[in-house]
Amino acid sequence: MYMYNHSNKTSSWRNFQQNLQKESRQKGRQNLKVLNKPAPNKGVTLKKAVPRANTLPVEQNMLTIKKNLSTNGTSSTEPSRKESTHLRKIITSFLIIVALGFAMQQLFPVLIKGTSEVFAFLKNDPSSLVKKFALIKPNFDSPSSTNSTKSSKQPLVLSKNEIKSILQQNNLLNLTEDKFAVNDNITVPNTNRTLTITTSLDMRLQSFLLEQIDSLMLLNRGKPEIIAMVVMEPHTGKVLGMAGFDSHSPNTNPCTQGEYPAASLFKMVTASAAVETCGYSPATTMYFSGGKYTLYKRQLSEDINIKFLNKVTLAEAFAQSINPVFGKLGSIILGKDILEKYASSFGFNQKIDSEINFRPANFTITDDNTYQWAEVACGFNTTTTISPIFGAMIASTMLNSGKTPVPSIVESVKDEKGVLLYKRKSEILNDAVKPDTAKAMMQMMNGTIITGTARKSFRGVDKDNVLSRLIMGGKTGSLSSYDNRVRFDWFSGFCSDTQDRQQIVVSVLVGHGKYIGTKASIYGRLIFKEYFNNYFALHSQQLNNG
Question: Exposed, middle or buried, 327 (CB in 10 Å: 0-12/13-18/19+)?
Fold first, then answer.
């Protein structure tokens, strides 16, 4: 606070200060009026400054105004922000278009592939179409790969029917290796790829069978017109050996043909039906008249006095293959419907889903001809026909607790790049008979070896160091062709070691010509010994190696 002084000096000084302050305020107002004018290019309006009682100097006011302009004047950055937002939208749209184009590039060849597969496989095998499309996948790893025909070379799963179409009958005739290559121009149209077929053959056993074939080919007298040998695992259906020849048709595989009369092998079906439907056992008493291997209508009569009849058990009738006994079973006891039912359960007249191209077994029975029923039941006819492979299936049923396996010889199929296209799986065709029935049949088949029609071929097995350790059984059959030029000779049997660690079945057909040569049951014995001699040696070696 200033003290009032009445002196002249003091009053003059005060007046001087007041005038100076008034002049300073007037100049500040003029400067603010100039600065408050709108900028010509910026379009920014400044707020009018309100003067204070103590006005700042002009220089300080200018600095304050510039500071306010720098903090409030944002209009210079707004255009750059709008431009960056627009640029981001353009980049995002571009990336979306590129992604859609890439996706279409990948999916378009797949759609083309699918369309071609539909038309191709609807003509051939529609059942395999779903499996084939399951493996068609777009390749997103290499965009360039879809621009060519590489997508049409995708590996495809092969069905049994396709393998059957690739394998001709002569492809499986007397194989010398367990692997072989075939050209495939069927399953994939317009290609000729090479497939590697791996078989289930036991090459030691297969070599033995081929040696037998080679020795027979050198014979002049006793050389068979036809011979076919098949060895199979009963539980899996795997073919371990298959060899043969047909002198009249060298390119034909006799193991897969189905034109041979079943003869007395059909007695296995008739006996199974009698055990299962009539409650018979191997010890059931049976009667017949006349000769064992004839079949006259008078032998089927029930009016004959029993004291003039021959008495045998069902097991003996089976082992000795007595025709009148089985003729009466078919015509009097079982009848048409039961015979037809059990023939079907064993696989007659059925298309079997196997990669082996063998003909179905044929069974024909009339409606009201009882004598024809008798002929069918004992196999005394030429209309019931089977292949050697089917003969092995019947024998396998007995060792497989009544289940008939589907035969197979192809273990796997791979293409040129080693891609697996097919892998074998064990399959069952039918539950032909009950396990107890199968056990009774094995007992009767064993009688064929010991006291029946094959006893001479298996004489001395109890002293053989290999065969004495085995349980064996079988069924023989013989019948002449319709023109009597060939005498068909069958042996279908099984063999297992005493501990049931290993089992096999064999089916041998020999078509004798003018001279009767080696019988089919002899070949059965030789095969049993060869296989188990190798098996025991290998098993002993494994035990020694720990």
Answer: buried
Beta strand spans in 390-447 (E) = 403-405, 410-414, 420-423, 428-431
Q: By C-alpha distance, which of 256, 287, 542 is closest to 409? A: 256
CA-based radius of gyration for the chain: 49
**Per residue in 41-56, is it b (16+ CB within 10 Å) or e — as a string?**
eeeeebeebeeeeebe
CB within 8 A of 538, min separation 6: which ones? none
Rounded-to-integer distance, Cα 164 and Cα 366, Å: 33
* Amino acid at site 430: N
CA pair distance 47, 105, nearest whole angstrom: 62
- For residues 390-410, give the mean pLDDT: 97
Contact 151, 110 (CB under 8 A): yes
Token readout for 451 is 């006291």
Q: Which residue has the tokens 């069978």?
A: 209
Core vs surface per residue 426-458: b (16+ CB within 10 A) or e: eeebbebbeeebbbbbbbbbbbbbeebbbbebb
**AA identity, residue 272:** S
Report whether 232 contacts 238 (CB < 8 A). Answer: yes
CA 97, CA 103: separation in Å to the nearest integer? 10
CA atoms within 13 A on the CB side of 403: 14
Beta bridge partners of 91: none
Exposure string for 89-106, b = 16+ CB within 10 A, e = fewer? eeeeeeeeeeeeeeeeee
| Residue whose C-alpha is closest to residue 429's, from 357, 354, 505, 372 | 354
197 burial level (CB within 10 Å; 0-12, 13-18, 19+):
buried
Whether pTM > 0.85 for this model: the answer is no
Backbone angles phi, psi at 67, to 5 degrees: -65, -45
Which amino acid is it at 346? F
The CB density around residue 63, as the number of other CB atoms within 10 Å, is: 11
Residue range 486-533, pLDDT digits in tens: 999 999 999 999 876 799 999 999 999 989 999 999 999 999 999 999
Distance CA 230, CA 508 (A): 6
Tell me the residue type at 172. Answer: L
- In this structure, how many other beta carbons lie within 10 angstroms of the beta carbon of residue 480? 14
Give residue 102's pLDDT: 72
CB of 507 within 8 A of CB of 395? yes
pLDDT tens digit sequence for 49-104: 444 444 444 445 444 544 554 444 444 445 556 667 777 778 888 788 877 777 77
**Whose CA is closest to 444, among 296, 286, 306, 302?**
286
